[in-house]
Write a structure and sequence with these properties.
Layout lengths: L5 E5 L8 H13 L20 H10 L1 H4 L8 H8 L3 E7 L6 H10 L6 E4 L5 H8 L4 E4 L2 H9 L4 E4 L12 E4 L2 H11 L11
Parallel strand pairs: 1-2, 1-4, 2-3, 4-5, 5-6
Length: 198
């Protein structure tokens, strides 16, 4: 029997596209600051003390500029190399109002997805990942990584200043997409590794 295709979950922001690098650049320009990405040691971009409403307004006003960001290094080549053995499900914590820009960016870069799902509610990403019967998930956000790991799905967590406190037996920290490729090759794409879940 041929091994079944892997079902791979992908976060969008800061997993496929460097959204926060764009936000830091745009916020520095708006406020005349010189904050570096490394200074943002929590997910809420605390150096600027934005309320949820202020962040939402700023993101919406700058949505076009944010989505000029290219894919992360080596991402497109790696997804292409997996495409004959895997299907991709993008599950993001974005609200629905920011989904059109995400789907347009995915289409622009020819990233094939079985589904693009908005799951901003607490616990929503874990439920969505479980419903999609994913083999593993690639994520950058500590809270979402723990949600997904808590339903038994392994998570590859892209290392960032704001996720250093995240630990879980099913969360494996990686530095970039080439390291993701190596880990996936050793665990899921070895001969016979795809024949059963996890």
């Amino acid at each position: 029997m041929s091994p079944r295709p892997l079902r791979i979950g992908l976060d969008f922001d800061d997993t496929l596209m460097q959204t926060r690098h764009a936000l830091v650049r745009l916020l520095n320009a708006r406020f005349g600051t010189a904050v570096s990405f490394a200074d943002c040691r929590d997910y809420r971009l605390s150096p600027w003390s934005l309320t949820d409403e202020q962040f939402h307004t700023f993101f919406t006003e700058n949505e076009s500029a944010i989505h000029t960001q290219p894919p992360l290094d080596d991402l497109l080549q790696i997804l292409q190399s997996w495409s004959s053995q895997a299907t991709f499900y993008v599950i993001t914590g974005r609200p629905e109002c920011w989904m059109p820009s995400a789907t347009a960016w995915l289409a622009k870069h020819h990233i094939p997805c079985e589904a693009v799902i908005s799951s901003p509610s607490v616990g929503g990403k874990g439920v969505a990942a479980q419903n999609c019967k994913l083999d593993f998930f690639i994520e950058d956000h500590a809270k979402f990584a723990l949600e997904i790991a808590s339903v038994g799905i392994p998570v590859l967590l892209l290392d960032s200043p704001y996720n250093q406190s995240c630990t879980h037996p099913l969360v494996h920290r990686v530095k970039d997409w080439p390291e993701i490729r190596q880990y996936v090759a050793s665990r899921w794409l070895a001969p016979g590794a795809c024949s059963s879940n996890n």
